[in-house]
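LAB NOTEBOOK - FOLDING QUEUE
OPERATOR: T.R.
BATCH SIZE: 2
PURPOSE: Compare the predicted structure-token outputs for two unrelated chains run back to back under identical settings.
PRIORITY: normal
REVIEWER: second-year student, initials M.K.

ITEM 1
FIELD SEQUENCE / FIELD STRUCTURE:
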Amino acid sequence: MTLYVKNNKFYYELENLCRIFFKNEKIEVTEYDEGIKKSPYIYVEVKNDDTNMVSIIEADINGDFIVKEATIDEDEKEQERQICIIVFNILCSITKQKPDWGILTGIRPVKLMRKLIYETSVNDAKLYFKEKFLVSDEKIELCCDIAARQDKIIKFSNPRSFSLYISIPFCPTRCSYCSFVSQSIEKALSLIPGYIELLLEEIDYTSTIVNKLNLNLETVYIGGGTPTSLTEGQLRSVIERINLRFDMKRCREFTVEAGRPDTITEEKLRTLKQLGVNRISINPQTLNDNVLKIIGREHTSNQTIEAFNMARKCGFDNINMDLIAGLPTEEYTSFINTIDEICDLSPENITVHTLSLKRSSRLNQEGNGECVSRPEAIQKMVYYAADKLRKEGYKPYYLYRQSKMISNLENIGFTKSGYENLYNIYMMEEIHTILSCGASGVTKLKDPYGDTIERIFNFKFPYEYMGRFPEIIRKKDKVLIFYDKFLR
């Protein structure tokens, strides 16, 4: 379909809004001048009629033709919101859908809810979500519940707090739904020793900056990719360097993603435990072996259970497990079987993702019709998971959304009491600075006294990271420049 715009700059939000209703269609955005509009389309014009600002919105979709004209605010941001409300209501009428998140398309609704609560009150924030964004009562209560649970953790962060992210962009294979910049071990084996050598150098340089600024390390997260794709010796060298270069006395959480069960060995687990790692993530995504094969994972559901039990044997008492609702060929019955079996294992965290059809993923490039053609079944999966996990004593503690999510849903982390993943909260809610090392790492510098955030991007691919490493080190000096405004 085509989105025509005239005399306004609301392309981005309007395109995202249209994509909620037309998930499997290309949305072509074009500035309208004159001529015939090609159906199906939505046309959005803003004009001044001498006394008021007016919006004119047309929709011609599948034989339904609707025109709405309305007086709108002079403030551009408010114009955008009011126009999105009109477009949303038109599309709800035509498609007979009413998405629960209303016109909210951002990835951090809990952060927005917290801001509104801080500025007004809980009741006023709820009312704002309902009336201004058309969010359903269920999602409003979910945001408030999570925001309240996060408050006690957020209070621990202070102006000198930061977290450290280490990127290991290698995996045994690339999953069909994945859009991360990760390289298969088979193709990238020769790169890894050189990559680790430079990663250690970046860790060293980052630590000198941290020491100059007297920052306090709260959490460490080694992610990827699959960090346990590395050998035991390579893993050891990275973690030992972190322990050597940073003051770990105040570090309250050290996570390593042991995401793929086929990369986990008892030797690696014992090394992680010995070196102070106190949280790991073992990510089955599903316990349906046929689905695992289809998405490109070369492990079985039994290997997942064996890896989990091995981790318990090695002393890990804080384990997360990731699941995805909506994987290709996954049926409702097999998904609830996965949820039930994971609950029987009783990990401390269970994160339920809704499949997101990322542009660069193999699943999206090869066709995804089977996934988008069953949104109701996928919604049932997500609702079953939430209901089951609450009954088992898990509570939602962080939430984020992504573009092109099936059924316009969300990803939710559930936790047993006292096992909230601090890094996920600090990172997703943008509470304090995240210093990142490694290919595709993004350093996010957070103003400790305000909302300003500046980003420093490392090069994405391992070969870029290695070939242009001096530039990465030079860019790290921006951290000093940023903090010079606040902490000197």
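ITEM 2
FIELD SEQUENCE / FIELD STRUCTURE:
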Amino acid sequence: MITSYDIIKTIMRTEKGTSMEADRKYLFQVATKANKTEIKKAIEEIYKVKVQDVNVVNVRGKIKRVRMAAGITATWKKAVVTLQEGQKIEGI
């Protein structure tokens, strides 16, 4: 059975993500098979907050080269989670 900790991989601490916290929005890297409903339940269970909205972006891998060898970085899924008024994720 998949748990909440399998769905939410990590919270993304980037410059853009930090500036979005003033609007009660947080960035997470999530499992590629997870949908919005599963992400919402996982955030509410892990962080004990009420989620208002979840937006999801599939980030495609980029082609990279190292000398003669070409490769591609991993494809992953990003979730932008908006919390309800007065809610905040503590300890990050």
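REVIEWER COMMENT (ITEM 2): The first strand starts at residue 8 and ends at 11.
FOLLOW-UP: none requested
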